[in-house]
Amino acid sequence: MIRDIPTHLVETFWPLAEPFLSEALEVHPHLDPEGLRSLLLSGMAELLVLLEGDRIIGAVVMEAQRYPTKMVGNIVALGTENGAWRTHGEAVTDALEQWCRARNLGTLNMLGRAGWSKFVTRRGWHTQPSLVAWKELT
């Protein structure tokens, strides 16, 4: 089961969600857990938790992004305990699609490791090879 966490409860849930999200951010060149927490507290992103019974087994941070031609629901970070994605991945994806629809977002988007390709293409996503590159100018 996926639950949205209101902004005013992020601090309460952060210690439970942060370990899952920290692992997901290990490959992000510009965002660390503290920066992600700041996005959540500012209301620029939303925290969702994956529950199994009364135990949190994963967390997702979502944001709505406006592009010139569409609004997109972007998965900023997603992490679960080992094995949870195999048993709950379909339900999580369905919940994220519903999260987007509820906000009139026409697309669900993610930037992730190449290993995600097999799962998302089975669910009807489009993928393309990409490069993540940056140059520090300071």
Task: Provide a quick synopsis of the model.
With 138 residues, the chain is of the alpha+beta class. The chain is 37% helix and 27% strand. The chain has one domain: Gcn5-related N-acetyltransferase (GNAT) (Aminopeptidase).
Break the fold down into its secondary structure elements and pairings:
Blueprint: E1 2-5, H1 10-24, H2 33-42, E2 46-52, E3 55-66, E4 71-80, H3 84-102, E5 107-110, H4 116-122
Parallel strand pairs: 4-5
Antiparallel strand pairs: 1-2, 2-3, 3-4
Helix pairs in contact: 1-2
Q: What would the keywords be for this entry?
A:
single chain, 138 residues, Aminopeptidase
Q: How does this model look, in words?
A:
With 138 residues, the protein is α+β, with helices and mostly antiparallel strands. It has one domain (2-122): Aminopeptidase (3-Layer(aba) Sandwich). The chain contains 4 helices and 5 strands. A 5-stranded mixed β-sheet has the order 1-2-3-4-5, sandwiched between helices. Strand 2 (46-52) and strand 3 form a beta hairpin. The longest helix has 19 residues, at 84-102. The radius of gyration is 15 Å and the shape is globular. The N and C termini lie far apart (44 Å).
Low-confidence stretches: none
CATH topology: Aminopeptidase
SS elements, strand count = 5
Give the averaged pLDDT, no decimals: 89
Task: Assign the CATH class.
Answer: Alpha Beta
Proportion of residues in helical segments: 25-40%
Percent strand: 25-35%
The major β-sheet equals:
5 strands, mixed
Number of domains: 1
Proper CATH architecture: 3-Layer(aba) Sandwich
The spatial strand order of the largest sheet comes to 1-2-3-4-5
Q: For the CA atoms, what is the radius of gyration?
A: 15 Å
Structural class: alpha+beta
SSE topology string = EHHEEEHEH
The CATH H-level superfamily is: Gcn5-related N-acetyltransferase (GNAT)
Give the helix tally: 4
Q: What would you call the shape?
A: globular
